[in-house]
Each structure stands twice: as structure tokens, then as C-alpha cells.
Amino acid sequence: MTKSIRTGKIVRNVVKYVVLVLLAVIFLFPVVELILKSFMTDLDIRFGLLFPTSFTIKPYVDALDAEYFWWLKNTLIIGVINMVGITLSSSLCAYGFAKLRFKGREAFFSVVLATLMLPAICMQIPLYKMYYGMGWTNSWLPLIVPGFFGGGALNIFLMRQYMRGIPDTICEAAKIDGANKFVIYAVIIMPMCLPIAGYVMLTAFLGCWNDFMTPLLYINEPSIYNLSLGLYYRYVNNAGSIPPANVQMAAATIMLIPCAVLFFFQKVLINGVSVGAVKG
Asked: Fewer Cβ in 10 A, N or C end of the chain?
């Protein structure tokens, strides 16, 4: 009986891993093909080959021109500013909900969480009308300023949950020593929340790096395009001559690299959040 149970367990594990491997191959195939085609010649792509007959880096040389680096610079500036703004504002809101006692705190927090149920697309028209009325269109302001006003309900929730794990006795001891609420936040709470703050900063940067719809709505000037919008107008919505497919694949592969690198850092930060969480 024991042997049959062990055999059944082995069979289930084999089936499970075979299914997982097949799914991994299916989902990774487009990415692998993207990378392979970025090293192909244009002739190889025209023939529909899966593997290049000879590897070449010329598509990368052609893709990395001055305009590409200019858009990359714009994207990095927007991303870094949002990393700071979103982390700062969401941590301040989370600190208020987690450590400050005021009337209606739970009700206000419930309203914040309720905004998660609003589809982002439903807010685009009123936001556009508001930003247009303020004269913010065709600038970076719609991409930067909102990050300094709350930082998003999900980020507030994550940071609040982490801060709630910090014992209130630490804050009370600081009050006895004469620290005010801002000092407690800046000197005591935030250094203990570095893992979750790092996670919020990382997701904020990835959100800006991959953002396409927001710049498409508000930006018309090529000099202030971010990378995703610049590549769209160069390779997709281009009335002139569109570069060869291998150059397009090379540009997309380069844009994929930071996401892949930060994905692994994200896993490390998630482990840090789990391991470094303070028990209340």
C-alpha cells in the first residue's frame, strides 16, 4: 500500500512538472524569439527563420541612436522623480493611518481602499479635462505630480500593513524622549520600513518605465517623449520609412533588460519584506 502511494505521488509530480515546463515554454517562446530575432539579419527574418544563420549586433547599433538615448534619459528622469514622490507620499499617508489616532481613521482608510475598485480607464477623461484646464498637457506634469499626492491606494495599504507591525511602544518611547510625530516618522518608522519602501520604489519605477497610455494622452512633443512612446511613434505609428524588423526587435530587447533585472531585485525585496517584518 505504501509503495502504491509513493508511486502515485511520483506520477503526480511528474505530470505537474511536465505541465509547468510546457506552460513555461509557451509563455517564454515570444521573449526568446524576440531576443533571437534581434541578432538576426533582415534576410533571416524575411525567410521566417526561428534561429539566426549568423549572429550580428548591427541591429543594436542601429537602434541605439541619439534619439533613443534622449528618450531613455526622459524615462529615467520621470521614473526617479516618481520613485521619490510615490514612496514619500504613500509612506506619509500610511504613517497617518497606522500610527496616528484620529476620528474617522478607519472610515477614511476604507474610502482609500475603495478607490482600488475604480477602473483606471474611467478616470482618464475627467483627469484629462482637469489637466487640460490647468495647462499641463504636452508636459511631464501629469506624469509626475500625481505621485506626490498619495502614491496610490495599493502602496498606502502595503506600507500601512508593514507599519502596523512596528510596536507602538517604540513610538511611545520616542514621545517620552521629546520626539514629535514627524521625527518619529523620519527617524524611527521609515528606517524600519526600508524593505517595503524599496519594494514601492521598485514598482513605481517599473510602472513609469512601462507606462505608455499616460504619455500617449498628454505628450505631443517628440523632445519630451518617454521611451515607450518614442518607440511607438518610430516603429508603429510612423508615416515615413519604418526601420527593419531586426532593429525593432533590438530596441524592444534593450527596453526589456531593466524589467528583467528589476524583476529579480523585486523577488529579493519581497523576501526581505517577509523576513524583516516586525512582529507586533
From this structure: N
Residue 268 CA to residue 190 CA, distance in Å, equals 19
66-278: which CATH topology? MetI-like fold (1.10.3720)
Indicate the domain borders of the chain: 2-58, 66-278
- What is the C-alpha to C-alpha distance for residues 247 and 37, in angstroms, rounded to an integer? 9
Task: Classify each residue of 159-181 as buried b or exposed e, where b means 16 or more C-beta atoms within 10 Å of its C-beta.
Answer: bbebbeebeeeebeebeeeebee
- pLDDT averaged over the chain? 86
pTM of the predicted model as reported, rounded to 2 decimal places:
0.83
Whole-number Å distance between alpha carbons of 55 and 43? 12
* Cβ contact 203:147 at 8 Å: no
DSSP state of 220: -
Print burial letters for 101-131: b (CB count within 10 Å at least 16), e (below 16). Answer: eeeeeeeebeebeeeeeeeeeeeeeebeeeb
